[in-house]
């Protein structure tokens, strides 16, 4: 019995000794080092980076596992699947270029087996309207009845790259003056009216113009004896009308300037001079009033002894200058119907102007006949009468 007890105690001692040795041996071994085995773009919700045109985004990369011993050694290369949507530089800075979606790829330069991707979604940048401007001349404008003012042509919307630059036009009293979608104001009766120009993009930006519709008196400049005329092509002599450009200032409605139509035909005048104006040439005359004049209407008078439509120019365009070199357009031909049966054609200008030189181009005429004739020309100021 004593022998058995000894063996048992010895076995127990041996087992404990072996366990202690194994425990000490295990405790002395180092834990195996963990290395990077996965990459991800940092803080990207649902795998998508959402940007607006022009935005930039600095890409950051997260390595896994979090305690990888070689994480600090990793460097990356960045690429885009579509440079029209976004570009990315060597440091990972993404720049949103255009609306759309493209893939951002991050490639490990340390381990070609590791890479990650995410989607970059670029949306359109919205630029709201910040201001609307209109010609100062129309901010407080006096005008006659039954006139059309192309207000819309002077309207500017800012910024110039506004996402929705459309505006609407509103009249405070359409019975006095109505306005269409193009900003053309038509005056209908005497009174005052406010035209509002308003943005449609929700920015609530607006500006206004006050129109005063009044009866008007036209006062001519009657002294024209020192005015001179320069013509684009030789003028034609005529036994009845004369043809000399200075006839426009002689107060004789039976005499006229005669200019040959740009129809390519040869016209032989009363002095047997042969005049040909090629098709496509612009026929015009320039009046030198010798000094700058301020005016807001001009008047063309047709011959009173011959109302043949062939002789009457149908449309003209007018320009002003103070140096006879640089001319500013005042009105285009489509806005000046001068081929009327009445003798005097009075054309209101959009606003008062001051020029020394007045240029008139003869834009349209009858296909019949060879010459265009204007008997008298004058300019002047409109006087608006008080409403009764």
From TrEMBL:
PROSITE patterns, per database record: PROKAR_LIPOPROTEIN
InterPro entries assigned: Big_2 (IPR003343), FA58C (IPR000421), Galactose-bd-like_sf (IPR008979), Invasin/intimin_cell_adhesion (IPR008964)
Residues annotated as domain BIG2: 35-118, 128-209
Keywords: Signal
Upper classification of the organism: Bacteria, Pseudomonadati, Bacteroidota, Bacteroidia, Bacteroidales
Protein known as: BIG2 domain-containing protein
Species in which this protein is naturally found: Bacteroides faecium
Domain of life: Bacteria
Signal peptide: 1-20
Keyword Coiled coil: no
Pfam families to which the protein is assigned, alphabetical: Big_2, F5_F8_type_C
């Amino acid at each position: 019995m004593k022998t058995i007890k000894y063996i048992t105690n010895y076995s127990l001692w041996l087992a404990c000794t072996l366990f202690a040795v194994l425990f000490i041996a295990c405790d002395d071994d180092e834990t195996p080092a963990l290395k990077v085995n996965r990459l991800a773009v940092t803080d990207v919700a649902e795998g998508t980076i959402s940007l607006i045109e022009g935005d930039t985004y600095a890409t950051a990369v997260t390595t896994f596992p979090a305690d990888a011993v070689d994480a600090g050694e990793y460097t990356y290369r960045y690429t885009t699947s579509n440079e029209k949507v976004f570009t990315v530089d060597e440091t990972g800075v993404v720049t949103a270029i255009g609306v759309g979606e493209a893939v951002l790829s991050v490639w490990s330069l340390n381990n070609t087996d590791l890479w990650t991707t995410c989607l970059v979604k670029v949306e359109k940048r919205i630029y709201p309207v910040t201001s609307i401007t209109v010609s100062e001349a129309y901010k407080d404008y006096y005008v006659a009845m039954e006139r059309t003012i192309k207000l819309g042509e002077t309207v500017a919307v800012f910024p110039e790259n506004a996402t929705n630059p459309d505006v609407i036009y509103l009249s405070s009293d359409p019975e006095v003056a109505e306005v269409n979608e193009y900003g053309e104001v038509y005056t209908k009766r005497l009174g005052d009216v406010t035209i509002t120009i308003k943005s449609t993009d929700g920015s609530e930006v607006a500006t206004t113009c006050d129109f005063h519709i009044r009866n008007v008196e036209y006062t001519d400049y009657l002294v024209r004896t020192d005015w001179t005329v320069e013509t684009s092509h030789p003028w034609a002599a005529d036994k009845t009308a004369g043809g000399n450009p200075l006839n426009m200032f002689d107060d004789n409605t039976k005499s006229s300037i005669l200019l040959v139509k740009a129809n390519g035909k040869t016209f032989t005048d009363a002095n047997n001079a042969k005049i040909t104006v090629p098709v496509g040439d612009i026929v015009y005359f320039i009046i030198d009033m010798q000094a700058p004049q301020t005016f807001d209407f001009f008047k063309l008078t047709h011959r009173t002894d011959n109302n043949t439509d062939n002789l009457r120019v149908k449309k003209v365009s007018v320009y002003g200058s103070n140096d006879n070199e640089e001319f500013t357009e005042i009105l285009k031909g489509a806005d000046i119907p001068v081929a009327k049966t009445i003798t005097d054609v009075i054309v209101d200008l959009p606003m008062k102007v001051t020029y020394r030189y007045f240029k008139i181009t003869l834009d349209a005429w009858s296909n019949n006949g060879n010459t265009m004739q204007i008997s008298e020309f004058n300019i002047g100021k409109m006087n608006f009468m008080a409403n009764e």
